[in-house]
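To start, one record:
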Amino acid sequence: MDARAEDIGAGRHILTDAFGDLLDPVFTPPWNRCAPGTGTLLVAAGIEVLSRDITAPPIDQPGLAEVPITVDWFGHRRGVRLTREELGGRIADGVRSGGPVGVMLHHAITDHAELADVDALLALVADHPRAALTTIGAVHCGSGRGLPATVLSRQR
């Protein structure tokens, strides 16, 4: 068996044990990278959705939907981290384009202060009458279509 298939299966088993029915069949690859053939392995493992940066080339694997991340919470421009205003502008641009808007967090550097800012963003979105918070699974299944959505994903 391919080492990647073993890793995908082992990771899915660990997450299923921890989260049970709460786990959506979504795969977010480390560093947004997928080697050739990964799509086939994901579908074989029961994964239905691939989520990674919008700039990654599509895999076009039958049975595998792609729901991209559109905003990197820790994004940089010319070596300088984006301000909260710039992040807000990128999120607003995503909403104007029809969404969904996927916001990527990096677990290794997301500290309590960053999480407080994420909480503030979620509260702002939750209070808006024309916005809806949803999951990647709901967007994939269609229940989130037509609504501006914020989908959060943690990335290494």
Summary: The two ends are 26 Å apart (CA to CA). The chain has two domains: 3-66, 71-155.
